[in-house]
Inverse folding.
């Protein structure tokens, strides 16, 4: 039986685990129910278990019959702080929390891969780490375990691999690219301090609202005129807050937004240039501006040789048309980027478009659903990537 057939035979169990996790979503780095569900699902596989001290993440390791290289396969487990508006028998039971980014499926597929590979343990030369990670949705779960030394020698992998579902791509189709795959994601906060007063006499005040708007417009000019078009920045202002009523000029305007970049060069250029614009425009209007950037996840960069290796593994399993190269990076962000900064490897996307395409909603939608049959493809690819990597001497 080939790897895909083995994964398909496990699909009912994979679906059941995914639905259990989906119905009981948890946030951040403390996921006791989800971690317990994973440990229960792999309890009969006799894997070596290492637990994170900072999170409820775990690493379950399958050691082959012979020594060899080590590969890490990652599945994230956390949900999002948002409501679910799907009429499903397994819809979220936790109000205001939903698995809208597919991490429930990532976890279930990784368990499926562990079960497939267990059947081939005697053929493996090396080790496979199944990393069930917490805190991907803004809680820096990967960085936490790296900082605590969970993957320091002698437990350092020779390569890392991950899958992320996308409901907008045909079910069972994979996509990826070498180099930048996903963007760095930073947050900016700005406070414009003026002088309040009567709305009918702005000349006696320092109105922060038009100055905040001027700065926001200047930001957009900056990212299109000072940042290279082929190394872009996407800047979006997501919140402006000022004032209390119609006849009062407020003293303060607060602004919030996000900065996305696909290289550290453009990222640094934006950080310096935006701060300069904000403070200098404020000075021109005799106002004080506080501008702060909080760095989020770095750029997710796929190693070229491993990306091609993973793509070829897709073709080997599912045929030439099962892999579609991405033409450009996506501007979302991923904390798998921290693992890729330290170890060679790649992330691919797996299409899980529903059978009825009119129901396809993007990740982070309150109506996101997926085609669960495609999870057999993901479990099989995880397993085959590991088998192939432990077979070849180098990429």
């Amino acid at each position: 039986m080939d790897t895909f057939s083995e994964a398909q035979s496990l699909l009912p169990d994979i679906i059941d685990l995914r639905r259990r996790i989906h119905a009981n979503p948890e946030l951040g780095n403390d996921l006791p129910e989800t971690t317990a569900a994973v440990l229960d699902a792999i309890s009969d596989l006799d894997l070596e278990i290492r637990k994170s001290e900072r999170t409820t993440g775990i690493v379950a390791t399958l050691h082959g019959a012979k020594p060899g290289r080590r590969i890490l396969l990652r599945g994230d487990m956390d949900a999002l702080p948002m409501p679910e508006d799907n009429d499903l028998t397994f819809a979220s039971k936790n109000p205001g929390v939903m698995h809208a980014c597919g991490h429930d499926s990532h976890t279930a597929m990784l368990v499926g891969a562990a079960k497939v590979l267990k059947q081939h343990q005697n053929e493996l030369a090396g080790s496979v780490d199944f990393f069930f990670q917490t805190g991907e949705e803004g809680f820096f779960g990967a960085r936490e375990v790296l900082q605590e030394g969970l993957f320091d020698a002698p437990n350092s992998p020779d390569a890392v691999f991950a899958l992320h579902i996308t409901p907008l791509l045909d079910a069972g189709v994979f996509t990826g690219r070498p180099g930048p795959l996903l963007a760095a994601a930073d947050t900016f906060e700005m406070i414009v301090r003026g002088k309040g007063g009567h709305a009918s006499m702005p000349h006696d005040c320092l109105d922060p609202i038009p100055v905040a708007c001027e700065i926001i417009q200047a930001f957009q000019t900056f990212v299109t005129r000072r940042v290279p078009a082929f190394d872009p920045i996407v800047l979006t202002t997501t919140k402006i807050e000022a004032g209390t009523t119609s006849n009062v000029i407020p003293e303060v305007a607060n602004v919030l937004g996000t900065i996305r970049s696909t290289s550290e060069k453009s990222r640094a250029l934006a950080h310096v240039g935006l701060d300069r614009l904000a403070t200098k425009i404020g000075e021109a209007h005799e106002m004080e501006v506080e501008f702060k950037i909080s760095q989020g996840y770095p750029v997710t960069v796929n190693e070229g040789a491993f990306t091609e290796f993973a793509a070829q593994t897709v073709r080997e399993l599912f045929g030439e048309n099962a892999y579609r190269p991405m033409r450009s990076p996506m501007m979302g962000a991923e904390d798998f980027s921290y693992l890729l900064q330290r170890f060679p490897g790649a992330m691919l996307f797996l299409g899980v478009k529903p059978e009825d395409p009119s129901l396809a909603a993007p990740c982070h939608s309150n109506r996101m659903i997926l085609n669960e049959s495609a999870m057999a493809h993901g479990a099989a690819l995880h397993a085959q990537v590991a088998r192939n990597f432990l077979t070849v001497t180098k990429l």
Summary: Residues 3-181+299-391 form a domain with the Aminopeptidase fold (CATH 3.40.630.10). The two ends are 26 Å apart (CA to CA). The chain has a mean pLDDT of 97. The chain is about 35% helix and 25% strand.
